[in-house]
Amino acid sequence: MVVDMKTKIAFFDAKEYDIASFEKANSNGEYDIKFYETKLSEDTADLAKGYDVVCVFVNDTVNAAVIDKLANYNVKLVALRCAGYNNVDIEHAFGKIHVVRVPAYSPYAVAEHAMALLLTSIRRIHKAYIRTRDHNFSLNGLTGFDLHGKTVGVVGTGKIGRIFTDICKGFRMNVLAYDKFPAKDSGLNYVNLDEIWERSDIISFHCPLTEETKHMVNPDTIAKMKKGVVLINTSRGALIDSEALLEGIKDRQVGAACLDVYEEESDVFFHDYSGHIIADDTLARLISMPNVIVTSHQAFLTQEALTNIADTTLSNIRQYFADGRCDNELCYKCEKVGKCPQEHKKLCF
Ligand code: NAD
C-alpha cells in the first residue's frame, strides 16, 4: 500500500492569480493543495478537516472560534500569505496552533502603488483617461498641483513607509515622519502625530492596524489637518473612520482620498459586483466622489510579490514540518509581551 505523506494544505479565498503562483511554486508536487474559493470563517472551518495547514489571506477570519475548530481538527499550522495579521487572534492561538506569515514580499509594490494613487488623484489621470477615450479633449476641471516642495507626512516608517519616503524625496518633497518606534540613524525628520496632521499637504499611512491605530483618522484629527489635505491609505482600512472621512470630504476639509483599503472591505473587495447593488452606502458614496480613488486592496499585486508570497509561504510550511521551527512564526509573546524566550531558535511553544 502506498501511503501519501504529503503535507495537505487547505487554501482559502483562492483567486486565479493565487492558484497560478502557488501551482508554479509547487510544480514539483511537494504539497497536496486544495484551493477553496470561499474565505475561512466559523462557517467554513469544517473544510479544513483532514488538512495539516490552512493557508489564508487578509480577509479570512481566524478568530478564537475558528482557531478552536482548527485545533480540534488537528490542523497544525495557519500559514498567512500576507504580512498583516490583524485578522488572526494570535493570543488565542498561542499553545493551540502555530501561525506563520510572509513578513515582506515586495514593499516596493505597495509603496509604488501609493505613489501611483497619489499621482493619479492629483493630476486627474483617472478623469483624463475616461475623457480622451470619449474623444473629449477638454482640460476644464483637470488642474492639478506640483508635488515638488509639498510636505508629505508618512505614518509608519517600516519597510513600505521607508521606500515611500525615498520615492517622495525623489520628487523633492519635504518628508515628515511619525513612527511609534522611530528608526534610529534613518535621517528621517520624526515629528509627533499632531505635527503630521497640522503640517502635511499629503499624509500616507504605512503602520499596522492595532487597537491604538484604529480610527487614527477621525473627526478630531481631520479637524487638525490642513484644508485640502490628500490622504493615502494602502495599509489597513480601519486606520480611517470612513464616516468621518466622508464628512471631511463633504466639508471640503479633505481635498482627496486615495484608498487601497477600506474598513468594511472584506465583504466587497476581490469580488466582481458589477451589475449588483452595493449595500454599503458609505463605500458607494465615497466611490461617487470625484476626488476619491478606490482600488480593491491591489497594492501588493505585482508578479514579483506573488512569486515571493508563494515561495515564502511554502518555505515557511517546509521549515515548520522539517525543522520544528520557523523564522516567520507569529507569537503574541514575541509581539506584545516582547519576551518570548524562544527567540525563534525553535517554535514559540
Ligand atoms: P513594517 O512592520 O515593516 O512597518 C510598520 C511600521 O509601523 C513599523 O516601523 C512600526 O514601528 C510602525 N508602527 C507600529 N505601531 C505604530 C503606531 N501605533 N503608530 C505608528 N507607527 C507604528 O510593515 P510594512 O511591511 O511596512 O507594512 C506596513 C503595513 O502595510 C502592514 O501593516 C499592512 O497592514 C500593510 N500592507 C498592505 C498591503 C496592500 O496590498 N495594501 C500589502 C502589504 C502590507
**Biggest beta-sheet profile:** 6 strands, mixed
Helix-strand topology string: EHEEHEHEHHEHEHEHEHEHEHEH
Shape-level CATH architecture of the largest domain: 3-Layer(aba) Sandwich
Q: Briefly note the structural class of the backbone.
A: alpha/beta
Q: What is the CATH T-level topology of the largest domain?
A: Rossmann fold
Tell me how many strands there are: 12
Q: What oligomeric state do the depicted chains represent?
A: single chain
Number of domain units: 2
Q: Give the N-terminus to C-terminus distance in angstroms.
A: 35 Å
Q: According to CATH, what is the class of the largest domain?
A: Alpha Beta
What helical percentage do the residues reach? 25-40%
**Whole-number radius of gyration?**
22 Å
Strand order of the largest sheet: 2-1-3-4-5-12
Protein topology:
Layout: E1 7-11, H1 16-25, E2 31-35, E3 53-56, H2 64-72, E4 77-80, H3 90-93, E5 98-100, H4 107-122, H5 125-133, E6 151-155, H6 159-170, E7 174-178, H7 193-199, E8 202-205, H8 219-224, E9 229-233, H9 242-250, E10 254-259, H10 281-288, E11 292-294, H11 303-323, E12 329-330, H12 332-337
Parallel strand pairs: 1-2, 1-3, 3-4, 4-5, 6-7, 6-8, 8-9, 9-10, 10-11
Antiparallel strand pairs: 5-12
The structure holds nicotinamide-adenine-dinucleotide.
Nicotinamide-adenine-dinucleotide (NAD) binds next to helix 4 and helix 6.
